[in-house]
Amino acid sequence: MDRNKVQEALNPITDGLFGKQRPVRYERPHFKVRPLVRMLQDLTSIPIEDMYAYAFSREPLNGKFDDGQRKSWMKQAVCCGREYAEKICCLYGVRSPEELSEAMGLKVEYPTFPENADRVLFAEFREPGNIKIYMDAVKKAHKFTERPEVKEVLTEQLDIKGLLLAHELFHFVEEKYKDEIFTKQEKIRLWSLGPLHNDSTVIALSEIAAMAFAQAITGIPYSPYVMDVFLVYGYSPEEASGLYEEIMEYAGKIPCCEEGEPV
Question: 20 to 30 A Cα–Cα from 192, which one of 90, 104, 161, 180?
């Protein structure tokens, strides 16, 4: 399927990942279902820095950037996430997401579903210090991690609940250090007229840094963007396969064969 068509069909799904919010009212897309383990093998082999095109694909201002800018910002945002992971862990003397959230005085809740059923949502941060991890998605994904072949790819280090929590923790850290942190200080000028101008932050930078922060905190050896596909798979293997197809195309790689198709 053409990349633009894939992205258009998946926008309502991926806008809900890791705390993004958008009403979900769309016609169910149709994609070739790919084998879960093979998708995970492919995705875990892509370094987080090589996810730059996918990471920026849903940035509202993406059309104003070129690939050089995207690659540069991707590296800087990844470094930012890793830097603040070490800074926060050293500051509080703990490393697990649960201990960090407690040390920082955050209220963490684990409801089964979001209050609004019209959106796909796995976790979210709400100011000033509330995080919700939605356990329906975690439980659905956990059933797959019990399979030896899946566990081998995702490793024993994966704690889905902890990874989601670590991602949302970054958004709290980002607000705490907003006067200095790269993701809040880096801006793009939308227009200028004499002394007047309009500068905007780049939303994608925050999400990229949160992914790098979560990876550094949890120690998983692959990009947390893998969870975009893995968590959706628990709800719809077809839609997860479409999202996988999109990520692979953005990374310049060939998607694996569909289930039942000769390799």
Answer: 180
